[in-house]
Fold each of these.
Amino acid sequence: MNNFETVIGLEVHAQLNTATKMFCPCPQADYKAGANSAICPVCTGQPGTLPAANVKAVELGVKTGLALNCRVNEISIFARKNYFYPDLPKSYQVSQFDRPLCEAGSVEIDLKPSGSKTIRVARAHLEEDAGKSLHALGSRALDYTLVDFNRCGVPLIEIVSEPDISSADEAHAYLTELKRILQWAGVSQCDMEKGELRCDVNISLKAAAVKELGQKVEIKNLNSFKAVKDAINSEIARQTAMIERGETVAQDTRLWNEKEQKTVPMRSKEMAHDYRYFPEPDLVPLRIAAARLETAKNELGELPRARKTRFMKDFGLNNYDAGVLTSDRCLSAYFEACMKEAPPSAAEGEAKAVANLITGEFFARANELKVNPEDYLSKTISPVSLVKLAALTSAGKLSASAAKTVFAGSWGTGKTPEALMGELGLAQVSDSVQIEAWAREAIAANPDAAKDFKNGNEKALGPIVGMVMKKSGGKANPRLANEAIKKILAA
Amino acid sequence: MLTAVETVKLIKEKKLTALTALENCFKAIKERDGEIGAFLEVFENSARAQAAAVDAKAETGKPLGRLAGVPVAIKDNMAYAGHRMTCGSKILEGYVSPYTATAVQRLIDEDAVIIGRANMDEFAMGSSTENSAYKKTKNPADTACVPGGSSGGSAAAVAAGFCPIALGSDTGGSIRQPAAFCGVYGLKPTYGLVSRYGLTAFASSLDQIGPLTSTVEDAELALSVLAAHDPKDSTSVKKPALERPFNMKGLRVGLPKEYFSDMKGVSGEVAAALDTIKNKLRSAGAVTAEVSLPNSVYALAAYYIISSSEASSNLGRFDGIRYGSSVKGASLADVYRKTRARGFGPEVKRRIMLGVYSLSSGYYDAYYLKAQKIRTLLKRDFDAAFTKADVILTPVSPTTAFKLGEKIDDPVTMYLSDIFTIPCNLAGLAGISFPAGKSAAGMPVGAQLLAKPFNEGLLFNIIREVERAA
């Protein structure tokens, strides 16, 4: 295996986030909608119907290109890809061929354990989805096929990488980054379970010393990141074994069999279609005016990777925290809103405390309550309160458990931490006279533990501190309680 | 038969009802369409309902549309909701359209009455209407002759006096050639002027809907209703037809030397009729000028590559899966094979095979791409010609209507009958065929005028002047 280099390119189809289909006014139906409930004469290919390009889909295509550092072509051309299948009602798919909307881009991925790599993007083009063929109903195989045209005509962007990916892990990192960018740009929701993001893998092995690539094997229709990773690893093993046995890897199209964890042949290239691509005469060339490009650029704003770098630089966040905070556009906006509330003199630790609160408590609760990220600013806890809470905790004025209670109390209520602390009597006690009094009582109640500690058993301190916390109703500052007990026992 | 202009006038003056106008049409159809075979179906019920609605409107004093009560036939390749549409093909036998074509809807919105669907060559492929899978249409001037094609049913319907206006579609001459054969007016509007939405596509980049009429005024009236931008057709233009001040004095009429220096293949009667038109133009004050279309010799070849390539893709949807006729088979491929083998006629199959071949990998550059280059060169030829001429005069067809069965087994000779009409589609120009006299045998002869895009108004004006000079 060491003798071979793995060369991988990915073709990703993302469903565009539009209300209607690519070429007709039908709505993009929910995947649970009844079969053939979102169809019309155009998307079922009735004679005489014509396509009219969805302006919003074009705009999202442009944003994809910009977000992937592509050149967005001023003129691009729709083309027909001809083949016969029952779920393709016109007998051709309207796509783009030799003049796509976007070309020559790149995606920066993080490598493990460290470093980064640039994966070049060859092209991104607009196309329409086909319908869905059902060969079985549940577990019952049918001796006929049912076709649902709801998905037929749904707009897609196909993003084709250059063969710059060298491992399953890199493929995973690329997909993760791509998904983050597409979601960030509002291009696609990228829900793989709903088929909104689909991936084909092209993979070949070559001996390290050899210049030309081996025969390309395509693995089609992978619908989870895990499947992509597993399929690549399995295919590397299969091709390696073949080459080591002296066999030749033939050009092939394969499918991933999840159950058996192996790729299986789909059709040999000899039977491959001649798609007879030619420019779609029913659509005029797509022209992207400079003003339209500018608008898209402005709407797109700062991209996640740039924002992450800025967070690290401006707020002193580490790579991990900055990464989590820029995994979602709304989350990063929420963090920024918080940092605006932090006093300008705030120490670096302040940002860290805010970040911790957001990536920990905030994120967990938002996910649990399924809060839409767009509602982070309105339906969670106000940035002012969150910053205050972080400050109170790091200043020792609130214990960790009390902080949790306050956090829960201010969630969705608009109550300030101070008000809640008063209401619930949760202010942490740091008065040394009071703490010393509790400490003396606690030592008196635990003579054995006190003796053990004096004999050098550090652990014996635990029950005494616990007693202080109990006596104080959880309000004693645990650090001060610790110090007070040690001081008394040392005397 | 009343013209459309006369019909509208009488109905608006309440001297005629739409129902009477319609019944007159039905009477003429019953009397003679058994012999002519222009219609595949007469929409008796829906037409009567429409006419009654127009009359009700007139009675209550509501404003009437520009085509109030005018009976109109549509070619069988245009969608009309709730009505059958077969494109002259067995593969669409029984198909009922779920929606209405924009062009048809625009007629209806102006209170026209849609009386039936006219026969045509299967999927508009042909020049004699003999390729219809349903019936042969006869030329009203001589029933032993073809009416031309592919809009032969539409031309015959107007020529026989069944209705004043019929819609046709023109991909390479399918409105103009039958108009010439039957002795009526046939307009191929500039590409993009009339919406194609609802017109079953033959060759998308060439197809255009247009009217066949018995007067130039009716053609003008019909176009004024049909021409409009349609957001459902991305190739339809926002620009309206141009209205320019018109002066016959000094009008430059271009005569392509490739056609006129050597009228080889053009019958003496057609050549003589063209001479008469030339003289009339001159006596009306126009000047003639020789122009050159050097690439027109390649037009026919380029046309058959491009139109067949597009057709091979456009006709893929007739697969027996969702609509139309379907033949059961042992496998999916078998269903496709049997359905299409049985559903399509020989000419359609010939064009699909030609188109698939031209678009195939390895042949694309040599055929499809080269044909597109010729198309560009031909457009340039016309651009140059139109710097020397305001309009171009040509024959419509090399001969008058030929006999039924005469050319049906000889596709290439049949293709050659479109040699003068094809360049207009390839270059996206406006073209009209108008009556230019009769042969010794009494068969109509047509002449063609071509104009720059959106200059339909100029064509109408010139024809009016020529007819005044007569």
Amino acid sequence: MAEPQTPLLSIRGLEVRYETDEAITHAVNGINLDINVGETVGLVGETGAGKTTTALAVMRLLPHRTGKITEGCILFRGEDVLRKSNGEMRQMRGERISMIFQDPMTSLNPTMTMGEQIRESLEIHNKGMSAALTDARVDELLTMVGIPPRRKHEYPHQFSGGMKQRIVIAIALACRPELLIADEPTTALDVTIQAQVLALMNELKESMRTSMILITHDLGVVSEMCDKVAIMYAGEIIERGSADDILDDGPHHPYTVGLFNSIPDIERESKRLSPIAGLMPDPAALPGGCKFHPRCGDAADACRSLAPPPFVSGEHIIACHKFGSSNGGRI
Amino acid sequence: MAPLLRTVDLKKHFGVRGGTLHAVDGINIEIERGHTLGVVGESGCGKSTLGRIVLRLLEPTSGEVWFEGEDILRYRAAEINRVRRQMQIIFQDPFSSLNPRMSVYEIIAEPLQMNRECAGKEMERRITRLMDIVGIARRFVNSYPHEMDGGRRQRVGIARALALNPKFIVCDEPVSALDVSIQAQILNLLMDLQDDMRLTYMFITHDLSVVKHISDDIAVMYLGQCVERCPSDELFRNPLHPYTRALLAAIPSPKHRNAGKRALIRGEVSDPIDPKPTCRFAPRCEACSDTCLAGDTPLVEHAPGHFIACTLYQKSKTDGSCLKV
């Protein structure tokens, strides 16, 4: 699927902190991630793993004052996003990178019609585009996401959740971005509507060759959509590989195993789930060594004191002492 | 043995602008003692309304609710309070269902105080025991909800529901707001409590894999009506109603990668305001025929224990041959 190439987006050693008077929250702690053209990468983890923070860092939308990128770089087509001016960034957002937020109920403006909201981003990024042409493009986008263009004069409250999310997708894709970041795009939707939205996103991805970062906690959605997967825990990527690497049986990080065991399997008869004991550590007071060791059944002495070395097998990388080290450095 | 809870043709209609909203429209369910009935459906299908009616938190428009052999809809306020001690509810959102100004102790104590169950040292002992049962460390006894994470908060909600030793608990999406690893902990807890305390659950959820895991029987709801009801394993082995099949097909599975294009159902749930007297699923159904549009489709027993409301299977009854979709 992925021919050798320079990645579209390359995140190197990214560290993000939220600094408040009370505490410093280590939200993202040195992650590396590459996304090639046309590829969908799933970012999986539970609440507080740092998934959304990573996405906001790429978009340069971290809350200013508290959110700080302390290390690393984010290269988009080789250019460092972090060095761009605010003006350049504003041009880039929506046009080259765009984002779909989790909750379609709150990410639309209730006082603007759906048509106006799609139009808005077209007008900002295509100065000088004629009104007729913009109108035609709005209709085209609505048709693409399966909403009759005649409904463009209606307001968000007149649409169902699934339709609102389609509108959000239409807005995000209006300027044909090269990278789409989708933050839990279907979590707020019912399963049958989720299936429709996922099918739509897959179709659009194929027809427009858009690369995608898909943030989710649903491993079912990952298997449906992703080429590559990165599993995040406490601000680190603890396992990474192709979707097959992650979803197949084989060596896995103990956290990944726990995550899979926590999901009731619809095809298997099991009366008891085996969840991971305990809770995600407080990102303001992370444990030393491997961040997962307080919850890990296999924790040894090394896990408590040393950061785990990456175990590499092809594209599949696991950061765990259990598997030993095949080379230095971090995931 | 008689079921612990039974409803007969239960209806709840809300008068809204533009007509009557049929939230629950003729539901017949039975829950055996010690069993779990899973109620599944998408948002707006009336499952939460149903849960609230059986507890009489909402008054139904018509129908009967039988609890332990008595029609509780005939009860007056004093009587309903007596029976309500045996019927409790766990809510979906542990962030909004706990009073932010009450400590864990006060939250769990409230039902005990309201019912003058105990006081003083006895109260303390009961609360500590409840906290142990649901697995909240004792040091949290004076904490407030905002100081705890979602999983612990949900445990407090469960402790509150258990305080009066109920027989029956409505669990309204109790794990939907939680992370998967926490979700699994809470599901295990609910199952352990059921075994230890012989609890009967009505488990309302939109998540089919969760419902399969925890339920003995499942009722699938669509627009206020039950379209299929049968034992849990039967539903997953042999789903019959086109809507049930579509629901099952819509779940993305981590085990089958890109298992071809799935059969998606078209469109969205139609309007619950003054629905036409046809099969409610007809506008989205692949197998829709003229019979489906001719009138309401009643829930009939297609095979022992397997109830279904679909014309495809009613035909088969009269023919004597089994027609498959």
